[in-house]
Amino acid sequence: MLSKLDLNYLDSVNNLSIKNLGLTGVNPSVACLIVDYKNDSRGVVLSYGVTSKSGRPHAEINALDKISNSQINNQTTLYVSLEPCFKENSCCAKKIISKGIKRVVVSSLDPNPQIYGKGVSFLKSKGVKVLLAGPRQNKFKQINKYFYNFQKNHSPFITLKLAISKNDYTKNLMSKNVTQKETQIYMHKLRLKHDAIIVGMNTYKEDKPKLNCRLNGINKKIRPFILTNDFATKTKFPQITFNEKNFDNFYSIMNKHNIRSVLVEGGLQTFNSFLKCRVFDEIVICQSSEIIKKSKKRYKLDKKLIKSSCKRIDSQEYFMDKIEIYKNV
Q1: Is 182 a known active-site residue?
Q2: Fewer CB within 10 Å: C terminus or N terminus of the chain?
Q3: pLDDT for 276-289, tens place per residue?
Q4: Which residue in 60, 88, 282, 317 is the catalytic one?
Q5: Are 186 and 318 in contact (CB under 8 A)?
C-alpha cells in the first residue's frame, strides 16, 4: 500500500519526467528521486536524476551516481517513474542493489516485452521491497504515451495538429500566422515531442515551412516529410504518399526510419485525409481569438467531422487562444 507521502513523491517524479521529454531518443524520459526518511518522517531528497539527452545514462544511474553508499540506509526509498531495466550485464536494477537500496516505488512497469516485470522481479529476488502504483496513480503512462503506444502497437503515435481562426479558417490570406506568438511556441513544444513532421505538398509550396523545432536552447533533429500524390515537384524534404485505401506503405516508411511519433501539421486537405481514414491517435486544435475576414472556403474546417468521431479530453485557454485535444475513439 502506498502512503500519502509515497504518492506525493511519485507525483514529483512523474512531473520531473517531463523535463527531457522529446530529447531522449528511442528511450522514454524517466525520472528518479532518492529520499531518506531516517531523520525526517516527511523525507529528505538525497538525489535526483532524469534520463540523459540521447537516452543514456538512465535516470536511476544519474541519481545514484550523485551519492555514496554511506548516505543510504534501511530507511532510504528510491522513487522512479518507470520500472528499472534489467539485463545480464550492467543495468539499473543491479546498480540499485549495489548501492544498498532496500525500498523502491515504481510508477509504471516497462511495456517493452524484453523488460516487462524483469526489473521488479530481480529487485524482489534480492530482498528489495518493491511497490507499484495503481492504474489511477500511474501518470507516467500518459506522459510517455508515444513510447507506450509504440511498444504495444508497434506503430507510431500520430497527432493531427491544426491552427484555426475563431471562425474556423486555417489560412489567412492577409497574414502568415493564424494564432498568437505564444501559441506558436506551444506548437514548437509539440514538435519537440515527436520524431517526424508531415505536411501536404500544397502547404509546402504556399507556406515554405522550415519543419524544424525552433525553441531556445533546444537542438533536436526532427524528420520532415512532404505528403504528395505527385512526385513531379522537387522538394528539399523526402516525399511520401498516403493511400486512403491502403496505409501499409505509410507505416512501413515510418518504421523504416524508426519513427515512433508523427505530427501531421496539414494543411487542411492532409488533415482531413488522416481524419476521415481515422489514421491518428490524437488531434490538437489551436484556435485563435481573432476572426479571419479574408480567406477561401476550402480553408475552412468542418469541426463536425472531429466531434462526430472523437472524444474531447482537454480544453484550455492559452493566452489569447484556446487549445483543444481530442482522442480517437
Answers
A1: no
A2: N
A3: 999 999 999 999 99
A4: 60
A5: yes
